[in-house]
Design goal:
The protein is of the alpha/beta class. The chain has 2 domains: 198 residues, Periplasmic binding protein-like II (D-Maltodextrin-Binding Protein, domain 2, 3-Layer(aba) Sandwich), CATH 3.40.190.10; 206 residues, D-Maltodextrin-Binding Protein, domain 2 (3-Layer(aba) Sandwich), CATH 3.40.190. It has 19 helices and 12 strands. It has a 5-stranded mixed beta sheet with strand order 2-1-3-11-4. A 5-stranded mixed beta sheet has the order 7-6-8-5-9. Helix 2 links the parallel strand 1 and strand 2. Helix 1 packs across helix 3, helix 10 crosses helix 11 and helix 10 crosses helix 18. The longest helix has 18 residues.
């Protein structure tokens, strides 16, 4: 019997034949802006998201501001649980034709929705010179487009046909957290390359033989990032492709870096969230005598407060430092882009799509919203001009490794704005993520006796699993 999730995929594939047929045609935008743009119609826009009360409060404040501009566009903001809950509910609703107007999304979610042709392309909206109903143009100016952090904006076209399906909403990435107090006391230098990281881990083990120098939360991110960094350095490897043969990660270079990290584990240099059994920030903030600890942690930029130790007698036991993760080639840095984007769904009434776009445009290009939402959430704003916002700038000026560690994390993220990348998105891309993460964890746990053949077998099994599931 098909599992519920697989059944939904089958239904969406069947619907896809109705929407787009089974032929191969050059991709064209599936939504064309009506003449005149927004006509002032009274419409309701349903927005699915995962925001808690603190972020919903910020959103509601700006919905009220949006309604001063567009009193006839009514925003129905709905919290739907987790990101996967949003995906699962919409997958069901698409089969019934009652999906929302806007939703938080990740690329693989959109790839799933695209099987039914349910997501509106944004190309015509972005380029439109039609009226926005408020004295301006419906689309984005070149200045507004250029204001987006390139890697975040590029995610909208990661679906293999060159069309734009999403807009970035708020983002996170990975950063290197390190015990600045320990580093300064022992004259240690923050690593900029993986070779430097290996040498640093060896030195830290000499200082504290009982520690694990580095914790890496996401094994999948580690694998994917290494692929991207090696490609940026001009070396022949890959992770996945949105079209053609999807699963490209079984390469010599990729097997070699997994082999290297396996040797790190055998020397006690590193652990991962899966192996440790919890976020590795738990090791990093450990301050009890005799308790296992680490001195570096690679994790989400949005989780900075979890990488800060608890105060003892009113003071932090150590100061946290934050830096860009190590690189294969620091001259061509690559850092993964994560965090929610938003997509707009097709509707029978084109004015609903236009109104949805106006709301998305407002939130993603508003300096004030992006600044306030970033400070409240710990996520990174998606436009560069936020740096000129007084509230945002004042917060970043307070950045430190203690009370304002989130501001420090955001500051580092903004400084590496040109380094972000996104992976290709297709049905099965989430399976690929899971499988490459499992390669690293299984290889690390395989033991000294497991050599090249065992690692090659892990890669083959991962490819087979990806192809089976897709």
């Amino acid at each position: 019997m098909l599992k519920k999730k697989n059944l939904l995929v089958v239904l969406l594939v069947l619907i896809a034949f109705v929407f787009v047929g089974c032929g191969s045609k050059k991709a064209k935008p599936n939504f064309i802006v009506p003449d005149g743009g927004y006509d002032g119609s009274e419409v309701t826009v349903v927005f699915y998201h995962t925001m808690g009360s603190n972020l919903s409060d910020v959103l509601d404040e700006y919905i009220a501001e949006f309604n001063k501009l567009y009193p006839n566009i009514h925003i129905d903001s709905q919290k739907i649980g987790s990101y996967n809950d949003v995906r699962d509910q919409i997958s069901t609703e698409i089969t019934e034709g009652n999906q929302p107007n806007i939703a938080y999304c990740y690329p693989d979610h959109v790839a799933l929705y695209n099987l039914a042709g349910a997501v509106a392309t944004l190309d015509d909206l972005i380029a439109s010179k039609e009226s926005d109903g408020n004295g301006g143009i419906l689309g984005l100016t070149q200045e507004q487009i250029d204001d987006f952090i390139p890697g975040y904006y590029a995610e909208g076209t990661a679906f293999g046909d060159g069309l734009m399906y999403t807009m970035p909403f708020s983002k996170s990435t990975e950063v290197l957290y390190y015990n600045k107090t320990f580093f300064e006391a022992n004259n240690l230098t923050v690593p900029t390359t993986w070779d430097e990281m290996e040498a640093l881990c060896a030195r830290i083990k000499e200082i504290d033989p009982n520690c694990i120098p580095l914790g890496y939360d996401s094994s999948a991110n580690w694998f994917i990032t290494m692929c991207e960094q090696y490609m940026a350095d001009g070396q022949k490897t890959a992770y996945t492709s949105a079209s053609g043969d999807h699963y490209l990660f079984d390469t010599d270079i990729n097997r070699n870096f997994v082999k290297k990290f396996k040797s790190w584990y055998e020397k006690g240099y590193v652990t991962t969230q899966t192996i440790y059994g919890a976020y590795t920030s738990g090791l990093f903030v450990s301050n009890k005598e005799g308790e296992l600890k680490s001195y570096m942690s690679i994790g989400s930029s949005a989780g900075a407060t979890h990488q800060r130790p608890t105060k003892v007698d009113g003071a932090y036991p150590f100061e946290v430092g934050i830096a860009t993760i190590p690189q294969v080639n620091p001259a061509k840095p690559k850092v993964i882009s994560q965090g929610p984007s938003v997509c707009i769904f097709k509707k029978n009434n084109p004015q609903e799509v236009v109104a949805s776009w106006l709301f998305v445009k407002y939130l993603t290009t508003s300096v004030e919203f992006q600044a306030e939402f970033s400070i409240a959430s710990g996520y990174v704003p998606v436009i560069k001009s936020v740096m000129n916002n007084e509230y945002f700038a004042n917060t970043l000026n307070k950045a430190d490794g203690g009370d304002y560690v989130s501001a420090l994390s955001t500051k580092i993220c903004m400084e590496q704005a040109d380094a972000y990348f996104v992976s290709p998105a297709f049905v099965g891309s989430s399976t690929a993520r899971d499988q490459v993460g499992a390669i690293i964890d299984k290889a690390l746990l395989a033991g000294v006796a497991a050599g090249d053949d065992a690692i090659a077998s892990l890669f083959k099994d991962a490819i087979d699993e990806c192809e089976y599931n897709s």
